[in-house]
Amino acid sequence: MPAPSAVRPYQFPAVHRVTLGNGLKLVVAPMPRLPIVTAYALVDVGATADPVGSEGLAALTARTLDEGTGALDGAALTERFESLGTAFEAYADWDSSVARLTVMPSRLDAAFALFAQVLRAPSFPARDVARKRDERLDDLAQQLAEPRGLADQRFTGFLYDKSARYARPGSGNARSVATLDADQVRAFHAQHYGPATTTLILVGDITLEGAVAL
């Protein structure tokens, strides 16, 4: 077997932090050797903010962000992102909701404008919210048919007090998810998504000045 070589030095990029006038926290890590830029929008809201009886609302909100805006429907949004060589992804965990994309610097302005539009003005069409809700119900049914999925759900119930949010699945159970609709999703987004609750992280071939301007 070949012997290991000496450890090569590595220096993490400098990380710059700025808070904009609207309260948005901006974190920039320039890495010009990479010909891409990755954007993360980290919103300080997750499953722990789900109302009692509406568990799964944070997850459904994140999953339906890109189903349309006032100007574009979900299919048009997907096509627009693809035409820029990127894709929009979003999910929610226990304490945060995350949206992200990775794109070449030459297309960053257009991709980021679309990214911001999805985060700021999603339309949450009732039909598409219902479709995503039903997909989650199908996932839950499949999980409960598998020993591992059933064990995971039962384990959290034993581990935490029954009154704790962590004792119930982060993406909701069949009973709670079935009650969710577009009006609840819109209200959750309006209450929790905004510049004051968001940290925007930009990493790659971008400068601090360019990020602030963007």
Structural notes for this entry:
The chain has 214 residues and is α+β, with helices and mostly antiparallel strands. The protein has 8 helices and 6 strands, in the order βββααββαααααβα. The protein has helices spanning 57-63, 74-83, 108-120, 126-144, 147-159, 174-177, 182-192, 208-213; strands at 16-19, 25-30, 37-43, 89-92, 97-103, 198-204. It has a 6-stranded mixed β-sheet with strand order 1-2-6-3-5-4. Strand 4 and strand 5 (97-103) form a beta hairpin. The chain is globular, with a radius of gyration of 20 Å. The termini are far apart. The mean pLDDT is 94.
Q: What pattern of helices and strands is seen along the backbone?
A: EEEHHEEHHHHHEH
Report on the biggest sheet. Answer: 6 strands, mixed
DSSP summary, beta strand count: 6
Low-confidence stretches: none
Helix content: 25-40%
First and last CA, distance? 50 Å
**Broad structural category:** alpha+beta
Q: How would you state the average pLDDT, rounded? A: 94
- Please report the number of helical segments: 8
Entry summary:
Helices cover 39% and strands 16% of the residues. By secondary structure, it is an alpha+beta fold.
Task: Summarize the helices and strands and which ones pair or pack.
Elements: E1 16-19, E2 25-30, E3 37-43, H1 57-63, H2 74-83, E4 89-92, E5 97-103, H3 108-120, H4 126-144, H5 147-159, H6 174-177, H7 182-192, E6 198-204, H8 208-213
Parallel strand pairs: 2-6
Antiparallel strand pairs: 1-2, 3-5, 3-6, 4-5
Relevant terms:
globular, single chain, alpha+beta, 6 strands, 214 residues, 8 helices
